[in-house]
Write a structure and sequence with these properties.
By secondary structure, the chain is of the alpha/beta class. 32% of the residues lie in helices and 15% in strands. The protein has two domains: 16-159 and 195-348, Alpha-Beta Barrel (TIM Barrel); 358-418, no CATH class. It has helices at 30-43, 81-96, 110-114, 116-130, 164-172, 177-213, 257-263, 286-298, 328-332, 336-348, and strands at 16-19, 47-51, 100-104, 135-138, 221-222, 244-247, 270-274, 304-305, 358-362, 365-373, 376-381, 394-397, 402-404, 413-418. The strands form three sheets. The protein has a six-stranded parallel β-sheet. Strands 9-10-11-14-12-13 form a six-stranded antiparallel β-sheet, with helices on one face. The chain is globular. The relative contact order is 0.12.
Length: 419
């Protein structure tokens, strides 16, 4: 793959992406769809990722998977032409506002519902319907999710809120930590002999779909993974993918992965498609979101993907509330996207890194990370009080979205120094 510092501009360069998995469902009415698009454009976002098909965590006949013109497809493999036209219309609306759309054609387990042949046919229909629009194609979300047949519990119209796995986790959560650890270890040892076989089967299925459709379009392909993986591990022909991609998921234990994963791929385009969502399980507020943005891009990520619980699922406080009860209205009112947009517009929307990132960390505690862009050094301090020395330069306060005359005594700071 091309080095990020020398690669020509691509449809994946310098995007600021919002996450709307349920954007084509009847959960998001036309007026709310248009208002959110206008708001994100005003805030400086340049792309949206959404699912054209059955969104995650619901069965194919659940009402929350349906668009205003019906379901995308049936379990019998019949495709809904009216839905495809509706998807084209909404994506065109986003394009008309200057928003590129990352189109997810499915979620990983759904290939077992439709079968490989019909999933390939579905992707052919997507390309036929959308290929003249401003899109990037994501083959599937979480390609290796539910390898053990758990997705059958969603059929035909269930959600993960009542998923047996979630109920089991809830029950296990009441046990002492030592007992929890013993149970988890026993389960992993029991399943280990079969895991590689399951992984191979899923990888082969999605790889064959990509093989069949790759030559039908000039738009780039990417793939979305589980938190413990990167894209090169889940597809047989990673060179057909336009970037190394991953998700770091929604756990504080993945904090260091936000900067370590792009650093692990210094000569390849890299994107974290799902860092922690704002408000998920009541966690990861504005400071965490600005942290994730700055460390991701300074470590070498090609673009940045924001997400908010309540917005990705168009939540009402009850739908998929095992992830938290933040609603769509609450998520839409968050000020964080504006702050991220201000940082992006000020610094990274048009710049291209021309050096290697440098980093100072104490185990998983980041002290500072920096990168050169042209004649400028941009250096981020998650908490300036933890730094022994801070270079002189212009001072940007990411949590305020403004410049400062004096260095604060604590909190996140960005220093911009011109050589």
């Amino acid at each position: 793959m091309l080095n990020k510092s020398t690669a020509p501009d691509s449809p994946l360069d310098n995007l600021l992406v919002d996450t709307w998995w349920f954007a084509l469902t009847q959960r998001l009415p036309d007026e709310a769809f248009a208002a959110l698009a206008d708001k994100r454009v005003q805030q400086g976002f340049t792309a949206v990722q959404l699912v054209v098909g059955i969104p995650p965590e619901v069965g194919p006949e659940n009402s929350s998977a349906a668009s205003p013109v019906g379901f995308p497809w049936t379990l019998a493999g019949t495709f809904n032409e009216a839905y495809l036209n509706f998807a084209r219309q909404r994506i065109a609306q986003l394009n008309s506002r200057g928003l590129r759309v990352i189109v997810y054609g499915a979620w990983g387990h759904q290939i077992e519902w439709l079968g490989q042949e019909r999933m390939t046919a579905w992707w052919r229909k997507l390309i036929e319907t959308l290929d003249d629009l401003d899109v990037v194609y994501c083959l599937t979300g979480e390609s290796n999710i539910w390898l053990w047949g758990e997705a059958q519990n969603l059929l035909p119209d269930k959600t993960t809120t009542t998923f047996p796995v979630n109920r089991l986790k809830e029950l296990v959560g009441y046990l002492p930590y030592r007992v929890q650890g013993l149970l988890i270890g026993w389960w992993r040892n029991r399943q280990r002999p079969y895991l590689e076989q399951k992984l191979n089967q899923r990888r082969q299925q999605w790889s064959r779909v990509l093989d069949e459709i790759y030559g039908l379009t000039s738009h780039p392909f990417i793939i979305h993974t589980l938190p413990q993986e990167v894209s090169s591990q889940v597809i047989d022909s990673p060179k057909r993918l336009a970037a190394v991609t991953t998700q770091t998921g929604h756990s504080e234990t993945m904090r260091a992965a936000l900067w370590q994963r792009p650093l692990d791929h210094p000569d390849q385009p890299f994107i974290n498609l799902e860092p922690w969502y704002e408000g998920i399980n009541g966690q990861f507020g504005a400071e965490d979101q600005l942290f994730a943005y700055w460390v991701s891009l300074l470590a070498g990520s090609q673009s940045y993907c924001y997400g908010a619980h309540g917005l990705w699922n168009v939540g009402d406080g009850q739908f998929l509330a095992h992830w938290g009860n933040q609603t769509f209205a609450e998520a839409s009112a968050l000020d964080t996207p504006r702050l991220i947009g201000l940082s992006h517009q000020q610094f990274l929307a048009t710049r291209r890194a021309n050096g290697r990132p440098f980093i100072e960390a104490n185990k998983n505690q980041l002290i500072t990370i920096g990168q050169t862009f042209g004649e400028e050094l941009i250096q981020f301090f998650p908490d300036v009080a933890q730094a022994e020395t801070v270079p002189k330069g212009r001072i940007w306060l990411p949590l305020r979205g403004r410049w400062a005359q004096e260095l604060p005594t604590a909190g996140p700071v960005v220093i911009i120094k011109t050589s």
